[in-house]
Amino acid sequence: xxxxxxxxxxxxxxxxxxxxxxxxxxxxxxxxxxxxxxxxxxxxxxxxxxxxxxxxxxxxxxxxxxxxxxxxxxxxxxxxxxxxxxxxxxxxxxxxxxxxxxxxxxxxxxxxxxxxxxxxxxxxxxxxxxxxxxxxxxxxxxxxxxxxxxxxxxxxxxxxxxxxxxxxxxxxxxxxxxxxxxxxxxxxxxxxxxxxxxxxxxxxxxxxxxxxxxxxxxxxxxxxxxxxxxxxxxxxxxxxxxxxxxxxxxxxxxxxxxxxxxxxxxxxxxxxxxxxxxxxxxxxxxxxxxxxxxxxxxxxxxxxxxxxxxxxxxxxxxxxxxxxxxxxxxxxxxxxxxxxxxxxxxxxxxxxxxxxxxxxxxxxxxxxxxxxxxxxxxxxxxxxxxxxxxxxxxxxxxxxxxxxxxxxxxxxxxxxxxxxxxxxxxxxxxxxxxxxxxxxxxxxxxxxxxxxxxxxxxxxxxxxxxxxxxxxxxxxxxxxxxxxxxxxxxxxxxx
Length: 495
What we know:
By secondary structure, the protein is of the alpha+beta class. The strands form four sheets. It has a four-stranded antiparallel sheet with strand order 1-2-3-6, with helices on one face. Strands 7-8-9 form a three-stranded antiparallel sheet. Helix 8 packs parallel to helix 11 (287-301). The termini are far apart. It contains 17 helices and eleven strands. The chain folds into three domains: 2-89; 101-179; 214-418, Intergrase catalytic core (hpI Integrase, Chain A, Orthogonal Bundle).
């Protein structure tokens, strides 16, 4: 039996390894982090376990054993940096002037990776975040504000043989921390020569929102409600926008899976393939989506009995039992979004998922995580409502009963905060001398204004809003005969 101690560069932390022989391996042992006072082991409260790992080898070579222990130390540091930092300095310092790359990666890498998905599609496995933590674990333990390019040499050497995207990822994360004032200083990563961007892609990006506004959400729900009695496609769009369900999931739903209750509508579903112990994913949906499903259900009950309706699919075309295809649902989504002036055809590359489908799901995720405020303090609840994996979140997965009656009502209350207020109709502008005001009924509503304004020579128009203005302005010259000058590309019809 042999003990060895490895000290960190700061001389404040020790890693101890106990190696012993067993039958299956020539050498096996345990590596753990020791607090500065050398008493006990460091406990990671966030992950609810000690900072410890096992080492197994089939060799007795001293250099190989040392290398393996060093790798285990680096792995522990990358996985438990926050707990180790707390043990080293007594209190967890996360001030912008003091935060280290290791701690920043632990706290914000997943958030940064989520921000890279423009349409809110959070990945089940944060591989980019794990890569950032692995690289930053090899950097010196010092505040990010004090870093220079020279301090990056351990990482820059590895980046020479790594994909170019890795350096872009690390530099992007550092900029992310600077922009949000998580850290101070300058970005020490060298700039990369940017490729010339495609003008067509740039123009498309201008007209492709990441999510719908609350006014647009209310408009879509009202449109779906008006069409619910006529077509099952309204239910599919409502469950995407108001429940975060994919088209594949919706195609498998039967009416017996829709649980109508006086104050909410729940969708009964399971995911046995997901990680963790929570496989029952029954959850409520937004009030707007609930109204659409109630309307559709009541219309179908006039044609058949509720008992016969239980085994029918939500997306049945007719009495033959055929299910609506994904392409039909995508075209329907495109028509709904076209009413809002949103382009859906030119923004999807071949082989990519339909933009309209991604936009509806991204809007739901945005409302749950940000409008309802579940993205920070209650991330586990937000992930459950979005149908995401809870693996790695022990508290949410094992100790919170989301599917209990109390848990379902809690989720419904959260979705009430995420549901936009209904559109109350046309707004009447307040018109006075040289001024017109159009006010919403609340700060959660969006006002849309379409107006034709005639300006005399020397006149001007000023558009203002306390919360920002977005839109388009077209200017046409008024000819002496009172008609508008035709556009340059327009041609007169020959008679």
